[in-house]
Each structure stands twice: as structure tokens, then as C-alpha cells.
Amino acid sequence: MDEKTNKVPQATSKRLPLYYRFIQKFANSGKERVSSQELSDAMKIDSATIRRDFSYFGALGKKGYGYDVRTLLEFFRKTLDQDEATNVALVGVGSLGNAFLKYNFHKNHNTRIVVAFDPNAGDGGTIVNDIPIFRPDELEKRLGEYHVEMAILTVPSRAAQEMADRLAALGVKGILNFAPVRLSVPEGVRIHSIDLSVEMQALIYSIRNDEKST
């Protein structure tokens, strides 16, 4: 992303890939321009939120005209670095890790899992869906070999901080953490944590709250 995106709120940053996905759909359908209300109807996001998000990046549209679809598509492609692939390491190949191995990021995104690590990999490693899997004690040896910039962490809580420390020391720039524990990383390393139990509880609360209001 360019320098302007440094001041973009995290909530807005998380919506950028969604905007890109839906704008791609509009472009593929042959639509030439789109309004914030049309985006709102398609994405189920308030149109005022969309206009505010877009305003962080300057004048992307024109009042009374809306947004040029091709211009938006090119803007978000460059902003999200869609033309440059990012190599990702998967650390932990349990049930969730296996699901990541089976999902081909590179078909729809600019990220690709190129190597994985798991204690059950065995001596010499193994290959699943064309992705090599090595034991964790080979992390320092293999990570640079595969030019990894980011990592997905799906290990037990007790091992998460140690693995995060090792990944950061090896120059990994970002970690997507699925372990239900708060991790500390050095300045310059981005970490996004997803606690599935918390997300489920939040969803249940929303459902119950909707039921009370009807």
C-alpha cells in the first residue's frame, strides 16, 4: 500500500479486500460505473461507511456520477499489491492447518502457502497438495529458502509465543494467529489474531440481541 494508507483505520483496512472482491464482480458483469448505494446493497455495508472508507484515498468518485468500476478495480489492485505474490508459511498442520493446505489462496488472492511446518512431518519432510511440510526444528533452515514474508499460525496456545518469536527473528513481516492467546511481537511485525471461540460468542450475542429487538 502507498503512504496514504498508513493513516487508514484498521477496520477500513480489513474491508479493502472485500471492496476489491465485489468491484471485480461488477467489472466481470460488464458494469461501467457503480454508486456507493449499489455497493452497499451488494456488500451489506452502510453506504456512508463506504464513502468514508473511500475518502481516505482521495477523490475516487464524482458526485452525481458514482465510481468508475475500471478505475476502482485498478486502484484496489495496486493498493492491495495484487500483481505481486506474497509467500506464506503455515505453522501447524492440524485440522485447521489442513484446511488451509487444501484451500488454494493463489487462485483468488495474491498470497500462496509455499511451505508448512508440523511436528508430525517426519524426517525429511513430506508433501501435501504440492506443499512441502517439514518439522519445526527446520524452521530456521527452510524459511529463507522459500522467501517467506508472512505466516499463518495454527499451533496450540503453549507453543504460539515461541513460534511467533522465531518467525519474527527470521524476518517474517506479518503473522495471522489462530491460537487463542495474545502474542507479543517486535515493532515492525504485524499480527492479526482470530479467536474462533470469541467470534462465535460475538455471533451468538448478535443473534440473541436481534431476537430481543424484534
TrEMBL record:
Query: What name goes with this protein?
Result: Redox-sensing transcriptional repressor Rex
Question: Which family is this protein grouped under?
Answer: Belongs to the transcriptional regulatory Rex family.
Q: Where does NAD(+) bind?
A: G92, V93, G94, S95, L96, G97
Record's subcellular location: Cytoplasm
- Look up the DNA-binding region in the UniProt entry and give its residue ranges: 18-57
Q: Domain CoA-binding: where?
A: 81-182
Can you name the source organism? Edaphobacillus lindanitolerans
UniProt xrefs under HAMAP family: Rex
Pfam families according to UniProt: CoA_binding (PF02629), Put_DNA-bind_N (PF06971)
Q: Note the InterPro entries from the entry.
A: CoA-bd, NAD(P)-bd_dom_sf, Rex_bacilli-type, Rex_DNA-bd_C_dom, Tscrpt_rep_Rex, WH-like_DNA-bd_sf, WH_DNA-bd_sf
